C-alpha cells in the first residue's frame, strides 16, 4: 500500500506545509510565490487566493479536502468496528497476552516493510516523545486492555463502553492543542456520550464490572494516542506515524510474544487465524493509517465524533458474525447517536 495522496505572473498567497505523502496540506505561517490562476496543488483557481479552508487551516465544510478527510476517518472507524469481533475470534486460538503481542509484531513487520520500500528516514528526535505516546496508547495499551476485558465482557457490551472514546478524545485534544470547540459541538458530543453510557449501564444492570474498568482505562490511553497521533499526522504522513510507532514497539513486542507463547496455550483454528490477521493488518495498520490521515485533514475533535458510530457498527458485527443477541435498546441508541454525529459534523470547531 502506498500513501494516498502555467501561468506567468507570480503572486503571493498563503501556502500549506506538507501533511502526508499524498500531498494533502496543513496550515503554514509563511507565504510563497505561486503562479496566478493556480492553486498550490496545481489545479486551476478563479482568483489569486486559496479557498476551501477555515481560518485555522482545516478544510471548509463541503470542500473536497473535507470530504476526503471524512471518508478516510470513516474507513478507519469501519476497520475499528471489526476489532472486537476479530479479537474474540483470535482468543479462540491465543491467550490474551499472546494475541496482543503477536498482532503488534505482525503489524510492525508490515509497517517496517512499507517504511523500507519507501526509504523513509527516521523521524526527527523531537517527534520521538509523541510517537512513544502513540505506541503506548494505540499499539500496546488499548489492544491489551480491551483484550483482557473481552475475556469476561461480550463484544456488544464492550462496544458501547468504548462509545465514550469520541468525547474522551475531544477532551484530550482540547487540552493538548488549546483549541476550544463550539458550545453546540460539546452539547452534541456530551449527549452522544450520555446515550452510550446509559445504554451500557442499562445492559450491565447498573453496576460496572472488572471488564468495564479495563475498558475505561483503554479509553484514556487510546484517546491520548489518538490525540498525539493526530497532531503528528499534521507534521508527517499519517501512515508513517503509526508505522514508526509500531516499529518502535517491535523489540518489546517480540520479546513479549516469545514469553507469552511459552506460557499460554495455542490452539490454531480458522477463526483464530483470521481474527489475528485482521487485528494486525486491518485494525492496527490499515485502520490507523486511514484514521490518522482523516484526523489530519478534518481535525481531531470532528474526526473523533465519527467514532460515535463505531459501537453501533460493532453491535451489527456482534450479531451477524458472532451470533450475539441484540439488545432491544440498541436501535434507539443508534438513532440518538447518529443524530449527535450529524450535529457535531455541522458544528464549527
Let me know the number of strands. Answer: 4
Strand order of the largest sheet: 1-4
- Rg, Cα atoms, Å: 21 Å
- State which percent range the strand residues make up: under 5%
Secondary-structure element order, N to C: EEEEHHHHHHHHHHHHH
* Uncertain ranges: 1-51
Overall average residue pLDDT: 78
Instruction: Provide a count of the helices.
Output: 13
Shape: globular
Largest sheet: 2 strands, antiparallel
The first-to-last residue Cα distance is 32 Å
Binned, the helix content reads 55-70%
Classify the secondary structure makeup into a structural class: mainly alpha
List the helices and strands and how they pair.
Elements: E1 10-14, E2 17-18, E3 25-26, E4 31-35, H1 64-81, H2 83-90, H3 96-117, H4 128-149, H5 155-161, H6 165-177, H7 183-203, H8 210-232, H9 238-263, H10 270-298, H11 300-305, H12 310-320, H13 330-346
Antiparallel strand pairs: 1-4, 2-3
Amino acid at each position: 500500500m502506498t500513501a494516498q495522496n502555467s501561468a506567468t505572473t507570480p503572486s503571493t498567497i498563503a501556502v500549506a506545509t506538507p501533511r502526508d505523502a499524498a500531498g494533502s496540506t496543513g496550515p503554514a505561517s509563511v507565504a510563497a510565490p505561486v503562479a496566478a490562476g493556480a492553486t498550490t496543488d496545481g489545479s486551476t483557481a478563479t482568483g489569486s487566493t486559496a479557498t476551501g479552508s477555515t481560518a485555522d487551516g482545516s478544510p471548509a465544510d463541503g470542500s473536497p479536502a473535507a470530504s476526503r478527510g471524512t471518508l478516510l476517518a470513516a474507513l478507519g472507524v469501519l476497520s475499528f468496528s471489526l476489532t472486537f469481533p476479530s479479537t474474540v475470534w483470535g482468543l479462540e486460538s491465543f491467550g490474551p497476552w499472546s494475541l496482543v503481542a503477536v498482532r503488534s509484531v505482525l503489524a510492525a513487520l508490515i509497517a517496517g516493510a512499507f517504511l523500507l520500500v519507501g526509504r523513509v528516514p527516521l523521524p526527527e528526535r523531537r517527534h520521538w516523545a509523541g510517537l512513544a505516546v502513540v505506541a503506548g496508547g494505540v499499539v500496546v495499551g488499548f489492544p491489551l486492555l480491551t483484550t483482557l476485558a473481552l475475556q469476561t465482557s461480550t463484544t456488544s457490551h464492550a462496544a458501547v463502553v468504548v462509545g465514550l472514546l469520541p468525547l474522551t478524545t475531544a477532551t484530550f485534544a482540547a487540552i493538548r492543542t488549546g483549541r476550544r470547540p463550539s458550545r453546540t459541538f460539546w452539547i452534541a458530543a456530551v449527549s452522544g456520550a450520555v446515550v452510550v453510557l446509559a445504554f451500557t449501564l442499562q445492559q450491565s444492570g447498573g453496576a460496572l464490572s472488572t471488564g468495564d474498568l479495563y475498558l475505561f482505562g483503554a479509553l484514556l490511553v487510546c484517546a491520548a494516542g489518538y490525540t498525539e497521533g493526530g497532531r503528528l499526522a499534521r507534521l508527517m504522513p499519517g501512515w508513517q506515524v503509526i508505522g514508526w510507532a509500531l516499529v518502535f514497539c517491535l523489540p518489546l513486542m517480540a520479546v513479549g510474544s516469545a514469553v507469552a507463547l511459552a506460557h499460554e496455550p495455542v490452539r490454531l483454528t480458522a477463526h483464530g487465524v483470521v481474527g489475528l490477521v485482521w487485528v494486525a493488518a486491518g485494525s492496527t495498520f490499515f485502520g490507523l493509517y486511514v484514521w490518522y490521515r482523516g484526523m489530519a485533514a478534518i481535525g481531531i475533535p470532528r474526526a473523533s465524533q465519527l467514532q460515535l458510530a463505531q459501537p453501533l457498527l460493532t453491535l451489527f458485527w456482534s450479531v451477524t458474525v458472532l451470533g450475539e443477541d441484540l439488545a432491544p435498546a440498541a436501535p434507539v441508541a443508534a438513532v440518538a447517536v447518529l443524530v449527535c454525529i450529524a450535529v457535531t459534523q455541522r458544528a464549527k470547531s
